[in-house]
Write a structure and sequence with these properties.
Helix 10 (223-230) packs across helix 11. The protein has helices at 35-38, 41-49, 74-84, 99-107, 123-126, 130-137, 156-160, 171-185, 200-211, 223-230, 245-258, 299-310, 331-342, 352-360, 374-381, 387-390, and strands at residues 14-18, 53-57, 89-91, 113-116, 142-145, 167-169, 191-195, 216-219, 234-235, 262-263, 267-271, 280-284, 287-288, 293-297, 314-318, 346-350, 369-370. It is α/β, with parallel strands linked by helices. Bound molecules: adenosine-5'-diphosphate (ADP) and magnesium ion (MG).
Length: 395
């Protein structure tokens, strides 16, 4: 277990808090979705209430290692100030840290909040440069990481700084570690995993790791066709990774050796083009004619997968079952999302597109845990050590 902000004395301390304020902006630099800011509020409020001086860090987008006004955190400072209903001191330094920023930090009173500029305005951030980490660390007494979405990257503001100060997790990061950790390491059995999405190659390590842990594995989405073709099925013009057929067979063998039941789609909804209004028909998953591509799981597969979900006590889902962005091929993903929403099992969703799908269906609040970190949640499911988490203190 990692220490969190409830485990330490905060009063009068300067706390450097790494948030994930990587919000979407439109062409006029207006925030189009402030979920990432509002979800950081519990940690920030807790620090304020416990009389800490709060120094906020975040990245935004991918500036090319220098100042770029399109990636300034100024809009975040404004929105955060509105949401917190208190002024935020925005340290508008193009260098992120300079003498004036140091002065502002030193003058903070307990309960006051300041936000630094986008840490990626310094190339040293992604290089995890020790000198830049030291500049950030010198601003405070304690480091708190609440940015799960970048915890899989060893950067100066996520890993380097945590080596230099007492380092603990905030509420968001703590919740991610607890939920993903429980589902993967201490699940109530049966543990079922559902994998989908676009590519097998993205998820080979996820499948390998999950096969060691799960009781049942269901595979849908585009990646299923690589498995079906590897077994000699006719997949028509469905998406396939021809250079991964052998790897797919190895994974199927691994499942057999482990005696882990692995289910692939038995039928699919296929179309004559990659378009919502293309002519569509249902085919057996291993008998898709040339000229047709599978874009969703079919009705029999939906029933099969739903039945398996009802047997599970813990479900981990990553990857849409079909092209859910097109309404005519969203039925499989929607049915699985609904089955999870109705399930009494502990349900965990990882992956950017899967989380977006469940949110789009309006079912997000019926899921036990939706991970906020796309890449980070995948690395967690791969069983990798996330450097931003590893650097925090143990209880
Ligand atoms: P996540 O972000 O949840 O990890 P991925 O990025 O792996 O998921 O995959 C999401 C994408 O996979 C979606 O854009 C979806 O349209 C696509 N997809 C799912 N099934 C198919 C399919 N049968 N054919 C083509 N694309 C598919
Ligand atoms: Mg994705």
């Amino acid at each position: 277990m990692k220490k969190n902000i409830k485990d330490i004395e905060l009063s009068g301390k300067a706390v450097v808090l790494r948030c994930d304020f990587n919000v979407p902006l439109d062409e006029n630099n207006v925030i189009t979705d402030d979920t990432r800011i509002s979800s950081a509020l519990p940690t920030i409020r807790y620090l304020i209430e416990h009389k800490a001086k709060v120094i906020l860090l975040s990245h935004l987008g991918r500036p090319k290692g220098g100042f770029d006004s399109r990636y300034s955190l100024q809009p975040v400072a404004n929105r955060l100030s509105e949401l917190l209903q208190q002024p935020i001191r925005f340290a508008a330094s193009e260098r992120v840290v300079d003498d004036s920023v140091r002065r502002t930090a030193a003058e903070l009173a307990p309960g006051q909040v300041m936000l630094l500029e986008n840490v990626r305005f310094r190339q040293e951030e992604t290089d995890n440069d020790p000198a830049f980490a030291a500049e950030l660390a010198a601003l405070g007494d304690i480091y708190v990481n609440d940015a799960f979405g970048t915890a899989h990257r060893a950067h100066a503001s996520t890993e380097g700084i945590a080596r230099l100060l007492p380092a603990v997790s905030g509420f968001l990061l703590g919740k991610e570690i607890a939920a993903l950790g429980q589902a993967l390491e201490k699940p109530e059995h049966p543990l079922l995993a559902i994998l989908g999405g676009s590519k097998v190659s993205d998820k080979i390590s996820v499948i390998e790791n999950l096969l060691k842990k799960v009781d049942i594995l269901l595979i849908g989405g585009a990646m299923a066709y690589t498995f079906i073709k590897a077994q000699g099925g006719q997949i028509g013009d469905s998406k396939v990774e021809a250079d991964r057929l052998e790897e797919a067979l190895k994974l199927l063998n691994l499942a057999r050796q482990n005696q882990t039941p692995l289910y692939l789609p038995v039928d699919v909804k296929a179309a004559q083009a990659f378009a919502n209004d293309a002519p569509a028909a249902v085919y057996a998953a291993d008998a898709i004619p040339t000229g047709w591509m599978g874009l969703d799981i079919g009705p029999q597969t939906i029933e099969l997968f739903k039945e398996k979900i009802t047997q599970a006590r813990t479900v981990i889902w990553n990857g849409p079952l079909g092209v859910f962005e097109m309404p005519n091929f969203a039925a499989g993903t929607l049915a699985i999302a609904q089955a999870l929403a109705e399930s009494e099992a502990k349900t965990v969703i990882g992956g950017g597109d899967s989380a977006a799908a469940v949110t789009q269906f309006g079912l997000a609040d019926k899921i036990w845990h939706i991970s906020t970190g796309g890449g980070a949640s995948l690395e967690f499911l791969e069983g990798k050590t996330l450097p931003g988490i590893a650097a925090l203190e143990d209880k």
